[in-house]
Amino acid sequence: MIVAENLFKSYKNATVKVLKDISLSIEDGSFTVILGASGSGKSTLLSVLSGLERPDSGKVVVNGESISGFDDKQLTRFRKREVGFIFQQYYLLPHLSVGKNVKLGADLVKNKEYAQIIERVGLKDKINAKPSELSGGEQQRVCIARALAKNPKVLFLDEPTGALDEATGRSVLDYIVKLQNERKFTMVMVTHNQNVAEMADTVIRMNSGKIIEVFKNQYTKTAYEIGW
Prior knowledge:
Elements lengths: L1 E10 L4 E11 L4 E5 L6 H9 L6 E6 L2 E2 L5 H11 E5 L10 H11 L5 H7 L15 H13 L5 E5 L7 H18 L2 E6 L2 H4 L4 E6 L2 E7 L12
Parallel strand pairs: 3-8, 3-9, 6-7, 7-8
Antiparallel strand pairs: 1-2, 1-4, 4-5, 9-10
Helix pairs in contact: 3-5, 4-5, 5-6
């Protein structure tokens, strides 16, 4: 479970307040969407919950560990051991093949079965290709494979389909959700897309650095049922 209590976060010498007294809880094995317009604070909240950034004040507890009090080494160890990341930007190393990019994630936890993950994301025939030889959807699938090769307990996603066309975006979302259902990891996704929020168990809506609404979807839609 992820629990946040009274989070505050500012930038530019504390003049820009981005998170304003955020408290929330996210259940193990759930799919939670953090929804909001650009500038609402949702990506900053994701960074704080995942240990990429520290809050100015407040507390984040992940699976019983209070990560907001960790030093740099402890945070690095936590991110390596517990979480995976998928971003809108692919952050693939251009000089490495698909296999070697995914192996980077697998090596963090000494997972030798990364080739099976590449096959599961449909890139077995591209294992020796470089990122420049792949489509946008294929590059995002490499990112998914790299994140999952770590066997994360929590997967954080920041606008993972923002740079993809509709057909590819639906395919990527469908695949991610199927893997989450199969592996039962906790998934937290940031998006500005109300339609994507219809796929989640729980939706946290943000505006101007505050949570303005939290609700559960009675019925969750698939990637092919939502609007675009």
